[in-house]
Specification:
alpha/beta; Nucleotidyltransferase, domain 5; 2 domains; five-stranded mixed β-sheet; four-stranded mixed β-sheet; 11 strands; globular; binds zinc ion
Length: about 300
């Protein structure tokens, strides 16, 4: 079944028409205004969905999957918490899109949508799968035996198993804990460490300095890589994973951080002859993972 996927990101909103194989017929990308209102967002989604599906607004009839950045309320219809777009908290986005487009809507978090997209693209599909998406922050989603566990709809990004620094130097995370993966290996954390180390030019400058074997850059990367290793091992040990997929902007722009992990995944505890092994996969869908995953979830909700 054809479906519309919507991925409302903190900086970019993507809307795409996706077929049931997960192939994209078309994806439109536009900047997300930090001041966008719920009314404006709903109008943009309804208009794009009608255009892409070749129908008139109000009679779109194509299922629409909407991925939102934050924590959802228990019925999964509204944002309970959205750090980057707080004005959308509580707004009935899913219900208003359904009413105005004449469609059935499914609402998920951005992490869930990207996880489902990458899971659907994996061949073969792993029985126990996680997607770790490292961009400005770090997002984590799980698929266990073909289903995403409903872990409070958006709180999986700061699971306790993602605490990777328990020393007294651990940095405070925005979730209130100390030492989350996000404080060590996210784009925001690495950009800050990069500036503290005297580099200007963001992650590309850090990658270039690492290639020149500058000790400070190597120290920053080694610390982030150790955190990533710990997170991957913890995720495996806790959930008995078969595969973890790594994606996001940091993964794309900082190969010195992830290439070694992908080539030689950390050995989880108990992974001797009797233990399970885990593979690390590179993400396949890039920035469209959320659009594709949201659309596939919307289509599968009707079957
Ligand atoms: Zn945290």
């Amino acid at each position: 079944m054809t479906a519309i996927g919507v991925d409302v990101g903190a900086t970019t909103t993507r809307i795409g028409l996706i077929d049931d194989a997960g192939d994209t017929a078309s994806v439109s990308r536009s900047p997300t205004s930090p001041h966008v209102t719920g009314v404006e967002l709903v109008a943009a989604i309804v208009g794009a969905a009608a255009r892409m599906s070749g129908s008139s607004p109000g009679d779109t009839r194509v299922p629409i999957g909407i991925a939102l950045p934050g924590i959802l309320d228990p019925p999964r219809r509204r944002l309970l918490r959205a750090v980057n777009l707080p004005q959308l908290e509580g707004f009935p986005i899913a219900a208003d899109v359904a009413d105005q487009a004449g469609s059935i809507t499914t609402c998920v978090t951005d992490a869930e949508a990207a996880t489902w997209g990458e899971f659907s693209a994996a061949e073969p599909r792993p029985a126990r799968f996680a997607h770790l998406r490292i961009g400005t922050g770090a997002a984590c989603g799980l698929v266990i035996d073909g289903h995403m566990p409903d872990m409070a709809a958006g709180r999986t990004n700061h699971l306790e198993v993602l605490v990777v620094d328990t020393s007294d130097k651990a940095r405070l995370c925005r979730c209130g804990r100390h030492g989350c993966l996000e404080t060590v290996a996210s784009g925001a954390a690495l950009a800050q460490r990069s500036v503290e180390a005297g580099y200007s030019g963001g992650l590309d400058a850090l990658q270039a300095a690492w290639q020149r074997a500058e000790p400070v850059a190597i120290e920053v990367i080694n610390e982030a890589r150790a955190g990533l290793d710990t997170a991957l091992r913890n995720l495996h040990d806790h959930f008995g994973l078969d595969a973890i997929c790594l994606g996001g902007g940091v993964v794309a722009h900082l190969p010195c951080l992830v290439d070694a992990v992908l080539a030689d995944p950390p050995r989880p505890a108990g992974s001797g002859s009797a233990g399970r092994t885990m593979s690390c996969l590179p993400a396949r869908l890039g920035d469209d993972a959320g659009v594709i995953g949201a659309a596939l979830l919307a289509a599968s909700a009707l079957t």
